[in-house]
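Need residues for this backbone.
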């Protein structure tokens, strides 16, 4: 089914609108999560030892969020195909959790269902 979804052309533009909206939801969630983690890092008590596991975890989360945001932002460059959108959304859905937030699990679940119905 996944390959069928990737190969199907964008029809009358409806799919494109839906796929763009889904990427917009991902971007909004990732922006909020990245800001929250950046705030937490900014308020972290100093001095921070290199072996501080919690700080290192926050830093890694922020990097992963930034990488995912950059992948989605790259969709704005050049001619974008249905497969490009589907791949970007699928990459987010299949990725290890970025946060412990239940909202992320809900978003991934909704996006997975929406992809299946395209």
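Answer:
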């Amino acid at each position: 089914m996944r390959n069928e979804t990737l190969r199907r052309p964008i029809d009358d533009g409806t799919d494109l609108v839906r796929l763009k909206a889904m990427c917009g939801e991902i971007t909004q969630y990732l922006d909020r999560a990245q800001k929250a983690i950046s705030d937490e890092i900014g308020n972290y008590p100093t001095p921070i030892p290199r072996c501080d596991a919690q700080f290192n975890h926050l830093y890694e989360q922020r990097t992963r969020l930034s990488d995912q945001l950059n992948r989605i932002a790259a969709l704005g460059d050049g001619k974008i195909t249905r497969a490009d959108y589907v791949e970007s959304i699928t990459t987010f859905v299949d990725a290890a959790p970025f946060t412990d937030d239940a909202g992320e699990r809900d978003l991934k679940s909704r996006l997975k269902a929406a992809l299946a119905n395209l």
